[in-house]
Amino acid sequence: MKLDSAGLQVLSPAECVELLASTPIGRVVFTDHALPAVQPVNFVLDGTTVVMRTTPGSKLAVAARNTVVAFETDEFDPETGTGWSVTAIGYARAVTDPVETERLAHLSGAPWSPDGNDRFIVMPIRQVSGRRVRVRP
Amino acid sequence: MKLDSAGLQVLSPAECVELLASTPIGRVVFTDHALPAVQPVNFVLDGTTVVMRTTPGSKLAVAARNTVVAFETDEFDPETGTGWSVTAIGYARAVTDPVETERLAHLSGAPWSPDGNDRFIVMPIRQVSGRRVRVRP
Questions:
Q1: Minimal CA–CA distance to A87: which of B37, B19, B65?
Q2: φ, ψ dihedrals at A109, nearest 5°
């Protein structure tokens, strides 16, 4: 079992991707007007690409396209005081092609809106890291 | 009820601080080797200052001191598909004074370690924003 400098168990890339796939909500970390920003978002994994669903007017749709972002998911059990956290990094791209949009809408289980209410941002994972985390209830 | 451009309910600063205070775990967003980074952390509120507990060797202790960071908490109910998210922004500072460290250790409910295993990073909130969020179960 590999431990990091803080004594936390380091997860393998395969474990990280498996844990990522187990949760429907993640947090995308980006820069908004030169300040760090973070926003929860619904997502699915398409292979090793994070597919985020957003709306046309959202800050995310504007700020997190064509830029390097971090994407984090975690889960904590207050009973046992343990949990995990996985962070992926990659280059985010706004999907503009209607055919790709329809495919991603079906993949993500969302109804495809002909009025354009589904916007997808895809982030192929370039780096992934994760830890088992100790927390206090 | 104020809505943002994505149709989400905007929370007042007072509601944001109240919700922040209701959770023991948040995520601090910072820059690590020029890449966006995010890490879960135990915290308490000291007035309107976020007090994060970390360990000396951690990436957070090194990277998130004397810099602007974002701090996010959220909670989602998979049953109802609703939740909230609050993000605070401020200038993070590593606490080095032993008296301040002891006070924060007591405040955070952690036993004070004479061997220096408690490190605190404080972030007085400069900006706070929050939303009620719709999610898919």
A1: B37
A2: 75, 5
Predicted complex ipTM: 0.85
List chain B domain ranges.
Answer: 13-134
Q: Does A47 touch chain B (CB under 8 A)?
A: no
Closest partner residue to A87 among B38, B70, B76, by Cβ? B38
CB A111 within 8 A of CB A102: no
CATH 2.30.110.10 fits B13-134, yes or no: yes
| Local confidence pLDDT in tens for the 137 residues of chain A | 888 877 788 999 999 999 999 998 899 999 888 888 898 888 999 999 999 988 777 777 777 778 999 999 999 887 777 899 999 999 999 998 999 998 998 888 755 444 456 789 999 999 999 998 765 54
